[in-house]
Specification:
single chain; 268 residues; alpha/beta; two-stranded antiparallel sheet; 9 helices; globular
Length: 268
């Protein structure tokens, strides 16, 4: 980093640096004193963040050690980099860790902040992306992001027709839920990547016979961010279609009116 560079701050700003996880480069999994210090909602020294609590994107300023920031590429829109440092890497990291590759069938459950990024990244990787959602109105949006198929999860006919069709499922539902219907969509030896809520209920016996894997994942280590931004997102032009809001203070009623019809889906 040099003076004048645009610095990108990911999901955490510090860690103990001495535990086994930190030494292995997995600072996001820090188990040492104080643990991983999140970019938002984490207690920290007053010198680093006024008030002693990190405020994330709401910060007027933030102090972060150079070991925990990356340089934003000069040819990347600064606002476009923001969602990549959180949602983007939370998709890309498990995709790389699990060896997802072109030609495989990738299911994405939920088309929110994480889900829509998973669709874009999966499509850029050459996967056949299928979005599983309860909302028919999201079909065109999912296809515009790069999905090849959309399944309405409440339609039993559609779900049955898609049984054992997916190699991987990226499950971004943000609350506890029944994962049984989605496991049925996986091929034998398939993997479900959980990044949101936890499964509810017991695991179905069929998942053992089919050798299915349920894996839990969250934000990546710092070193993965640099190649992700420079060598993947820039050439693939990810993300596209961000919505910039002018720096103003609209009335509370106007803010609510823009949110109620879900007109600000997946955007920053």
């Amino acid at each position: 980093m040099q003076v004048g560079d645009i610095a990108g701050v990911g999901c955490f700003t510090d860690s103990c640096r001495s535990c086994e996880e930190c030494k292995d480069g997995d600072e996001n999994l820090c188990t040492g004193p104080g643990g991983m210090q999140g970019t938002y909602g984490s207690a920290c020294a007053e010198a680093k963040q006024p008030g002693g609590v990190t405020q994330g994107g709401y910060s007027g300023d933030i102090v972060v050690d150079e070991s925990y920031v990356i340089k934003v590429p000069e040819n990347m829109h600064v606002a476009a980099a923001a969602p990549l440092l959180c949602a983007g890497i939370t998709c890309y990291s498990p995709f790389i860790n699990h060896g997802i590759k072109a030609g495989q069938n990738l299911g994405v459950v939920g088309l929110g902040g994480l889900g829509h990024m998973a669709v874009k990244i999966g499509a850029a990787m050459g996967c056949n992306v299928t979005v599983i959602t309860r909302d028919e109105s999201k079909r065109e949006l999912a296809l515009s992001f790069g999905a090849k198929n959309v399944i309405i999860s409440t339609d039993k006919v559609q779900m049955d027709a898609a049984a054992k069709s997916l190699h991987f499922i990226y499950n971004s539902i943000a609350f506890a839920h029944d994962i049984h219907p989605y496991l049925d969509l996986l091929k034998s030896n398939g993997t479900m990547i959980m990044v949101g809520g936890v499964p509810k209920g017991s695991m179905p016996a069929g998942s053992f016979y089919a050798k299915l894997i349920v894996n839990f994942s969250h934000e990546s280590d710092v070193t993965s961010l640099d190649p992700f931004l420079f060598y993947y997102c820039v050439p693939h032009k990810i993300p596209r279609g961000i919505l910039l809001k002018t720096k103003c203070r609209p009335s509370p009623s106007s803010r609510l009116s823009s949110l109620c019809p879900c007109s600000l889906r997946h955007r920053v």
